[in-house]
Amino acid sequence: MIRWELYKLLRQRRTFLGLGATALVPIFFVAAIEITRRGPDAGEVPFAAQLLDNGLVVPLITLGFATFVLLPLVVAFVAGDSIAGETSAGTLKTILGRSVGRTELFLSKAAAVAVYCLVAPAVLVGVGLAAGYLANGFEPLAGPGGALISVSRGIALVWSGAGLVALPLAGLAAFAIFLSAATQNSLGSGVGAVVLVLLLRLASSLGLAGSLDPYLLTNQFEAWLNLTRDPINWEPIVRSAWVSLLWAIAFLTAAWAIFVRRDILS
């Protein structure tokens, strides 16, 4: 059942639009850097001072920028369509009529969306690595505090960062699935998830969350940067993992409760 849901996900236009957008970002970024020979000011973003000479910096910077809007956006609209899309297309009743349990169907859809949460940042950093290497090659990185990061460790850092970013993306996807089950509106579910991201970032920037600020879902997107420290600061990384998991479990449970009880009319 999971493979069938993945197959259906691959057939959707929004899936490829989202992955295409994530692939184009590092390409356009490298092109802009090569044309202007200017990047972000040193200190504005991590590793900015090395951008013009080290292609290994490209996926790190683009991953950091993409977590603000792009990755949450593409994941939100794919997840928001997971249940509402079947309802609007009139196929949900047909699927459930083929001896497929609601719980099995729901878990399969959630698993397919979780795979997308992994694939989207992986495409971003994969294209970023290729574009960066073709533009400037790879050199060791100067990490925070001046500690040298070898090329092999830098590549591992890039892929590990993408994996860590997938965790809060999964939490956001769970919220979009909840909206999808509750509203049966694909567009509204995607927009609602994006609005949540914007509201949480606004609350954090204005200091409105108080003591809850470290536990906001949007603040978990930056946890991967602690992998660049020597020694690695594991506390925010572990917090990101359990906070993201808590968000995912809470909203998936609520979505499942709605889905298994809702009357399917079409």
Describe the overall structure:
With 266 residues, this protein is mainly alpha-helical. The protein has one domain (2-261). The chain is 70% helix and 2% strand. It is built from nine helices and two strands. It has helices spanning 2-11, 13-36, 57-66, 70-89, 92-96, 102-136, 151-183, 186-205, 234-261, and strands at residues 141-142, 148-149. Strands 1-2 form a two-stranded antiparallel sheet. A hairpin with a 5-residue loop joins β1 and β2. α2 packs across α3, α2 runs parallel beside α6 (102-136) and α6 packs antiparallel against α7. The longest helix has 35 residues, at 102-136. The protein is globular and about 60 Å long. The chain starts with a helix and ends in a 5-residue tail after the last helix. The model has no long low-confidence stretch (mean pLDDT 87).
Provide key terms for this protein.
266 residues; two-stranded antiparallel ribbon; mainly alpha; 2% strand; 70% helix
Distance between termini?
A: 21 Å
- Report the order of strands and helices: HHHHHHEEHHH
Number of beta strands? 2
- Total domain count: 1
Radius of gyration, CA atoms, in whole angstroms: 20 Å
Strand content: under 5%
Helicity range? 55-70%
Order of strands in the sheet with the most strands?
Answer: 1-2
Outline type: globular
Task: Tell me the layout of helices and strands.
Layout: H1 2-11, H2 13-36, H3 57-66, H4 70-89, H5 92-96, H6 102-136, E1 141-142, E2 148-149, H7 151-183, H8 186-205, H9 234-261
Antiparallel strand pairs: 1-2
Helix pairs in contact: 1-6, 2-3, 2-4, 2-6, 3-6, 4-6, 4-7, 4-8, 6-7, 6-9, 7-8, 7-9
